Amino acid sequence: MSDVLTEEDFQKFTAFRVRAMGQRLREMCEDEAYDSWTFEEKVKEMIDAEDAARQARKVAKLVREARFKEPAACVEDIIYMPERKLSKDRVARLAECSWVENDEVLVAISKTGCGKSFVAQALGNAACRRLLPTRYVRLADLCAELNRARMAKDGTYFQLMDRFKSVKLLIVDDFLTTPIETVNSVDLFEILEAREGRRATMIASQLEPNEWYLRIEGELIADSILGRVASACRYLDIDGPNMRKWIADNRPKRE
Questions:
Q1: pTM score
Q2: Most CB atoms within 10 A, among 203, 226, 246, 250?
């Protein structure tokens, strides 16, 4: 402990809301390896520690607000194998989030169990790390949220619609796995229409776009929805084994 700084002094860093800076100073005071550092070097180390801590808090807040089903999903944990047809280099490029910043549409297609939801959430987590507000939601849950808000008749429906329309990255999982009602088709169209060219959207689905028609009531609204998604987007096709089973079978070996 420093001969000059007291415990009360260190507690003031917390009171001043620079706790990480105070903690780093305490560590330097207790470690002789830092005795040879200049004053400026020590100040820089404290500033970097506080900056990193604040960045981590911002990311953690964005991850909470994203409402991921698997908050810990990250690109570092994606499993690559030839049969998955998943390029590590391409995932790394997508994780840089230029497509999010450019307000593009990304569509991930895979059969059940191939890990599209994990990949979608991992890319969402990458966006949060870059401080890009993100929301993850299954289409069925999106419709349910909007239906409950619509029934409330207190304005929450319009507030919820605005949030879905305006969040920087909207990830819609299990897209059109089951048919949706006409009223929800209209909701979906309004959201995608508002986001087109203005916000980034990621769609994760078990079905190819030409099969989405079968899940949407009304040919006109179906054409309108597909036009907002399928006409100008990036595709990420994922194949391979059932990843839930693969992970369960290989966990003891990996551990």
A1: 0.84
A2: 203
